[in-house]
């Protein structure tokens, strides 16, 4: 079973779209593991990855300004 996203908004968007991590990766040109790492907080996405992921999941709002969403 795939791990749950760290961000509740990301989890909700992923569930709403009904996409697997693999399907998201295929859509945005990333490996399934990279998508999992980004979604679970194991890796910080580049700006391009972040924007692609948000687009694939139809996320329109900016992430909250808390420790789980800190950009490096």
From TrEMBL:
It comes from the Eukaryota. Gene3D superfamilies: lambda repressor-like DNA-binding domains. GO terms for molecular function: DNA binding. InterPro entries: Cro/C1-type_HTH, Lambda_DNA-bd_dom_sf. Belongs to the MBF1 family. Transcriptional coactivator that stimulates GCN4-dependent transcriptional activity by bridging the DNA-binding region of GCN4 and TBP (SPT15), thereby recruiting TBP to GCN4-bound promoters. Involved in induction of the ribosome quality control (RQC) pathway; a pathway that degrades nascent peptide chains during problematic translation. Required to prevent stalled ribosomes from frameshifting. This is HTH cro/C1-type domain-containing protein. The lineage of its organism: Eukaryota, Fungi, Dikarya, Basidiomycota, Agaricomycotina.
């Amino acid at each position: 079973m795939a791990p749950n996203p760290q961000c509740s908004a990301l989890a909700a968007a992923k569930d709403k779209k009904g996409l697997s991590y693999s399907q998201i990766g295929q859509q945005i040109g990333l490996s399934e593991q990279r998508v999992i790492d980004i979604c679970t907080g194991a890796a910080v996405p580049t700006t391009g990855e972040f924007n692609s992921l948000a687009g694939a999941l139809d996320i329109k709002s900016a992430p909250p300004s808390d420790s789980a969403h800190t950009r490096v």
